[in-house]
Specification:
alpha+beta; five-stranded antiparallel sheet; two-stranded antiparallel ribbon; 19 helices; 11 strands; about 10% strand; disordered N terminus; binds magnesium ion
């Protein structure tokens, strides 16, 4: 296994080898005219890959699975899942392949995965393809999440295939090369369970423990400890989404990882004006995955994971259920604590701030933001200046600043720390109007706005002169934003 930057990278095929029941060997479709649109050089180096090599025609072919690197055994992964609450016992990678795993320069095992690489046996009616806009979108948003310090899959590259793809119109095709600490999801366990294969379930759980939650191995009941660890990881993850105003958009159980990384950036968006009901996905008519529902949905998904894990928790089903219910009971507290602590930091209040003072302050603020339809991200960043004695940026966001003044008086009495606020309130997020502008230009062949935006989002917490247009709310004529899932 290569541990330094080298000209050839050796892949492992651990998942393919150990989980034959879940891995269908498959080849990526040949791209007629591959063109590298974006390469994440820092991530490449972290994986031990030479960026210069990846930029060659040969390297580009490797990035889309058209030249299979040594040791790689591309597979489509099988999984089940609840989509919008309805259960599908067989989903699987319809347009994606796991190329294999690599050991990065820190010694961590990482999946290298292709999205948009052609039809697989799981494709059903789908064409197996992806298009440039949505793949660049995943690149942009996942890298922005990473820069904000939120656990996420990463994006190594987007390659245009040269193949036109039929959507509402004909659009240029692309493959995203995705990197993840693994692609194990709630749906992987649901698949093992629905097929009644307890031995497979146990091997999957052992694999998840060794890869993601090694402390669970030392517990009296390792599988229960694994479940607890996933609950904790997801409670923390969803709290972080909520704190930055992120709406995932399609929290199906096949899109929830065991590692606790955000995965599958489809119809996701960051909200502008604070709105608990914010929904951006064109297919989420009922608002199941609305902003404020996300913690509840995470808990619902974890309950589906519990059902899948039951045979491992106890041989007696009733006792297994009792154990699972007890573990699930921790989710709300873990989530609330993570969110409240995060919210306190966003207001510059440390752990010493009393919850009975900070709590009402937070609630009043959110009610005020909702009422005034105030831009969530700009307001919180502007509030840092208010802590330094310059309240105008935040104050002028309200048409009637009276309530803000009254709130500010109470808040300032708690002596907020402005530097703490600047460390957790981003200046730059992937705002919908900026993302659309960058993707529109890229689809038409101009990648400059995309590269500039990626660059801005790499340092989300550091305000830089000249980047004002990236920090402000959407223009008033941007209207109500919708993104589409049929990507
Ligand atoms: P997602 O909501 O993107 O996670 O996708 C849900 C399921 O649909 C997964 O099994 C995907 O592999 C499959 N899928 C999505 N788009 C396509 C497509 N264009 N062709 C084939 N399968 C697809
Ligand atoms: Mg998915």
């Amino acid at each position: 296994m290569s541990t330094t930057t080298s000209t050839t990278l050796t892949f492992d095929g651990r998942f393919a080898r150990e989980f034959e029941e879940l891995a269908v060997p498959w080849q990526a479709e040949e791209a007629p005219s591959p063109q590298l649109l974006v390469l994440n050089e820092r991530l490449a180096s972290e994986l031990g890959l030479d960026p210069a090599l990846l930029r060659t025609p040969e390297g580009t072919l490797m990035l889309i699975g058209n030249r299979v690197p040594e040791g790689a055994t591309p597979v489509a992964q099988a999984y089940a899942g609840h989509q919008f609450g309805g259960y599908s016992p067989l989903l699987g990678d319809g347009r994606a392949l796991l190329l294999g795993e690599v050991t990065d320069i820190h010694g961590r095992l990482r999946d290298v995965h292709l999205k948009g690489s052609g039809r697989t046996p799981f494709a059903r009616a789908g064409d197996g393809l992806a298009v440039v806009g949505p793949m660049l979108r995943e690149y942009l948003v996942s890298e922005a999440m990473y820069a904000m310090g939120i656990p996420t899959t990463r994006s190594l590259a987007v390659v245009a295939t040269g193949r036109p793809v039929r959507r509402e119109t004909m659009l240029p095709g692309a493959v995203l090369t995705r990197v993840a600490s693994s692609h194990l999801r709630v749906g992987s366990f649901q698949f093992a369970r629905v097929n009644g294969d307890t031995e497979l379930l146990r091997r999957l759980a052992d694999h998840a423990i060794s890869r993601h939650h090694p402390d669970a191995a030392k517990a009296d009941q390792p599988y229960l400890a694994l479940f607890d660890a996933v609950i904790a990881a997801q409670a923390s993850l969803v709290a972080q989404w909520m704190l930055v105003g992120f709406v995932h958009g399609v929290m199906n159980t096949d899109n929830m990882t065991i590692s606790g990384e955000t995965i599958d950036y489809g119809p996701c968006a960051f909200m502008d004006a604070f709105n608990p009901g914010a929904v951006y996905s064109s297919i989420d008519a009922g608002g199941r995955y609305a902003y404020a529902n996300q913690p509840v949905i995470a808990e619902w998904n974890l309950t589906r994971l519990a059902e899948a894990l039951l045979p491992l928790l106890h041989e007696d089903q009733e006792q297994a259920v009792a154990l699972a219910v007890e573990s699930l009971g921790a989710f709300r507290n873990l989530y609330s604590t993570a969110w409240s602590t995060g919210m306190k930091s966003k207001l510059g209040l440390g752990a010493e701030a009393r919850d009975d003072e900070a709590g009402p302050l937070v609630n009043d603020l959110l009610a005020m933001l909702e009422e005034g339809q105030v831009d969530y991200t700009s307001f919180l960043r502007g509030l840092g200046s208010a802590a330094r004695g310059t309240p105008d940026a935040a104050r002028t966001m309200f048409t009637d600043p009276g309530a803000f003044d009254a709130w500010t008086k109470k808040w300032l009495a708690l002596a907020p720390d402005a530097d703490m606020m600047d460390r957790v309130n981003p200046v730059y997020i992937p705002r919908n109007h900026l993302v659309e502008e960058a993707l529109g230009a890229a689809t038409a062949g101009d990648l400059d706005p995309f590269h500039r935006l990626v660059d801005v989002l790499t340092q989300p917490y550091t305000e830089r002169p000249g980047l004002e247009r990236y920090a402000g709310p959407a223009p008033v004529d941007f209207g109500s934003y919708r993104t589409f899932c049929g990507t």
